[in-house]
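Case study 2.
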Amino acid sequence: MRIEGIETLVCHARMRNWIFVKVRTDQPGLHGWGEATLEWHTRAVVGAIEDLAELIVGEDPRRIEHVWQMMYRQHFWHGNGIVRATAISGIDIALWDIAGKLAGVPCSSLWGGPVRDWVRTYSHLGGGRMEDFYETPVDNARAFADLARQTVEDGYTAFKCMAVPPTMPIEGLRAVRMAETAVAAMRDAVGEGIDIMVDCHARPSPAMGLRFGKALDDFGLYFLEEPCWPECVDGLAMINGALTTPVATGERVVDLASFRDIFEKRGCEICQLDLTHCGGFTAARRVAALADAHRIALAPHNPQGPVSTAASLEFGFAQPSYIICETVHADVPWRHEVVTEGYRIDLHKDAAGRIVRPNQRPGLGIEINEEAVRAHPFRQERLQRVFYRDGAVGDW
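Prediction:
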């Protein structure tokens, strides 16, 4: 059996363009689906996949580790830059989809079988009206509260929000009070039975991340995400050690050595590896084993498309330390036109809320409608520019 070709299909999805990867084999009708979505870098990732195809077309798709090593190592620049790692991820996910189809079982059965009956999911509220931060903090808090209520009405008992505004390396209390007011409004709106996560989006410096963390510590957050740049491992460890709120990070980390450094310094309690960026299932399983050795939980980053979601869920059914999965359910009306999914969404009767039952189909259990994808071709994403009040460049 040989890899006959690798195709990319790009589907516009407003905030990003989904990049679906189709790995074709020389066996009639046998192919695998992966995803390599990387917003604002669509053309670069598609080009990187084309480059990798030159390396691996003709190889046996069943030799997944061998193919992964070829993609990672057989060029002078190893595959740990974000564009290269994302391209590798999309192809690797598709190869595991093929493996499941060949075996006639879901991917989770290839890794020892399911370890749970369902996976809990959470939704992301978005950023509220952070652009109005300095003018209308009360309106901003009210907007967050309204979004929180709507998400709970949709069946979720956990949600994430970007209640922390962009800040300069050091600022006074105004930004901190803004975040505190927004989280207080959400907690009042939904009560203590709902889990709230705050995504700092790696905007703050370690000093400001610590101030935000301490201000929000008494609200019983499920976790505080990226309170500083993930490269600031000592800063993450300082913040994690000073709070009762668990710190989460990892969505921008793409190589095993960097995960090791964060875990060894106890920079987080929740690892948010992204299946579409960290090297696919092959690399993610190594990260998960390392996290398990440090008793660090898994909660993958997953704001992308439907193949990423299927992969994140399939991974969750095989990982003991997996606690919750980020999901997107209303980003574009055509999401469910594009994909047929093998898993089932239920509303759990207790605090778990919106859950996913296991996929029963082979591989990832999904199929992509290529005509529906072609109906929504690539469109340039809206660029996200952030500047501080003095005109200096900030983090989005």
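The chain has 13 helices and 15 strands.
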